[in-house]
Amino acid sequence: MSKKRQSLATLDRRTFVKAGGVAALSQVAAPFIISARGETALKIGVDEPLTGTYAAPGKNEVLGCQLAVDELNAKNGILGRKVEMLTEDSTSGDAGTAVQKARKLIERDNVNLLVGNVNSALSQAMAQVSNEKGIMHIVPGGHTDPITGADCKWNVFRVCNTTRMEANAVCGLLFKTYGKKWHFITPDYAFGHTLYQGCEADLKKLGGTVTGNELTPLGTTDFSAYLIKARAANPDVLVVLVQGNDMVNCLKQISQFGIDKQIHVAGTQQELESVEAMPPEARVGVWMFEWYWKQASGTPGLDAFIATVRKHTGGKVPTARNWFGYVTVHAYALACEKAKSIEGKAVAKALGGLELPPEVKLQPNKVYFRGGDHQLMLSAFIGELLQKGDGDPENLFKVNSIVSGDSIAPTVEETGCKMQMPA
Amino acid sequence: MLELIFFNITNGLIVGAFYALMAIGLSLILNLSGVINFAHGGFLVIGGYLAYVLTPYIGFWGALIVSPFLTAIIGVAVEWLLIRRLYGRDPLYSLLLTFGLAFIIEDGTRQIWGANGLPVSVPPALMSALSSRFFFITGYRMFMVATVAIVVVLLFVLLRHTRVGVRIRAGTLDLETVAALGINVRALRSFNFAVGIFLAGLAGVLAGGQLGLEPTMGDGLLMPSFIAIIVGGVGSLTGTLVGGLLIGVAAGLTAVVFPSASDAVMYVIMAIVLLVRPRGLFGEEGMLT
After folding, report:
1. Which residues from chain B sit within 8 angstroms of residue A28, using beta carbons?
2. Residues in chain A with pLDDT values less than 70
3. Please, are residues B43 and B71 in contact by the beta-carbon 8 Å criterion?
4. What is the pLDDT of residues A206-226, one digit of tens each?
């Protein structure tokens, strides 16, 4: 290499590195951190997966939070104080990172509310930190039972269903319409384990049998070996409990193998994020959504919510994850207003038992936080997937019934929660 | 039970063939350039998404051919801009570089096409299963295996019977001598890198039809490919092919008896191979020192 070319190469590399540095800085600075609006701003720290397998639901929950923050700031903020939102990437499955980010938000940024996580295991890990620090913490979308059950904490509230509520919402219906021999495909971590336990208990109570439970590692791409086994067991229903991309891959292979033509395919939790990522032929079965955008016309606030989300997502309709985030921030704001304080214990007391107003709950039934375990009693939208959009290309689910949270939730005693409020 | 085992062996071969396709591309690059390409899964994702963009214009079949070529062009650009500068240094440098690249590609994909997955439909002719008994042998999976077989044969012909192929093989064994004989090693490495990335792009298009597209889809497929190389033996493409098939079958069989260990069994096989025969089943001693 000649001298001239060598220097050219060095120059290129330097320029490149500088450019990269600028790009990296702008990444950190621009998108997520809103610059402080005076010293009195109230801070909400959002610790959610922005990368990895749960990036899609994670980002949708963050968007929901952001929309609520915008609405609050457009009015009176919270107790007259502006609301500032700080977002951190918890990763999709690394509890160490999620905890480190939670600590950073609490210790360095002094947030008043910690929000997160999509992943059940990360939610639990974060709850340890928030509890130790005595900071209000709302879990928008981590479903495993103990969060508002055996491990419930005075400062931790949950918006999405518990896995037990999901099982109760669907199992009776599946048993009645499809049959009593069930085979499960279950994700092998906290969420999957408690969801399976719930379904198994319900099925046994109804008098059915489990022909097998395939525990699949999170991030499984090829489900063929499990599907071969499931079909050989000859069940009446194949119950798919995996989520996210795993759900997409699994249902896609089920439809390619034609299993849905031989065995009823169903599951508990289904999400619009997953359904939109599937080709039409894979959209099969009976499921529940935790919130669905297509409802009876005249539901207060619904049209405005849909329009706002569409504006931010380039035309996409809101998903349950958007709604979780939206409810999380609004519920916290309502509790602060009710308590006339932002002090953790006072807010926690106010949030227990708080009923969501129509323009926040965006659905027919009564929706409220139960005081005994801090679990939101939200409705289950039960129905069937549609291969082609009905009326709207994004209307991919036919809701047959909207069941109230009260009717599917176990009692506080049954959850195993012994809530101890600090003195 | 016997039928179940037979089904899973067949199924494992199908899955393994796909691992092998990824692994052979990785192996080519590793053998000649000493680069452990952690961004291989990223190039797979690029191949898949490019096919998604191209399909409305040129159809699935057109995209199947064009997308891997475009991916290879991007690969050569990356090699030329970044990876080339680290040849001859400790493999750790290029490993770190490609590790970072993998993240950049994943997040770049997310920026461009969104975090949510995108649906991919395969041509209707390939959609149905062979028979209701052999429901897991679908037209598309047979097509994937056939594609892998054709690619492997073509690659072996290229390496055995063309001048550039012979040079690549010679370079794998002794790059210095090859360079001393007046062969342009830079160009040779670029070409070799392009072939490897072409295979990654092809794997991406095929995987898109099977799984659907999603920015992290490369992650789950990359580790089995590395394991296939280690089990088969660094330096041997035959070994890589056999390694891929072997771990595919092993994972399938494990799923019959102990499903939650079907991922772990690949690592167990790797550990056993490393303990008993560190060079791998078909590897030559001292290939990667």
Report:
1. none
2. 1-39
3. yes
4. 999 999 999 988 888 889 889
| ipTM of the shown complex | 0.84
CA closest to A220 among chain B residues: B220
Q: Which two tokens stand for residue B35?
A: 């680069």
pLDDT digits (tens, 9 = 90+) for B37-46: 999 999 999 9
Q: Domain limits at A120?
A: 42-161+300-378
Phi/psi of residue A48, each to 5°?
A: -130, 160
- Residue B88 has a CB neighbour count (10 Å cut-off) of 9
**Local structure of B68: helix, strand or coil:** helix
CA-based nearest residue in chain B for residue A260: B135
CATH of the domain at A129: 3.40.50.2300
> Which residues have CB under 8 Å from A168's CB, separation 6+?
A198, A202, A408, A409, A410
Q: Do B11 and A59 touch (CB under 8 A)?
A: no
**Chain A residue nearest residue B127, CA to CA:** A256
Nearest CA-CA distance, residue A346 and chain B, Å: 38
Q: Which amino acid is at A383?
A: G
Domain boundary among A238, A256, A289: A289
Q: In A, residues 248-267, which contact B (CB 8 Å cutoff)?
A: 248-249, 252-253, 256-259, 262
Looking at the structure of chain A, the number of domains it has is: 2
Q: How far is CA A420 from the centre of its chain?
A: 26
How far from the centroid of its chain's Cα atoms is residue A251's Cα? 20
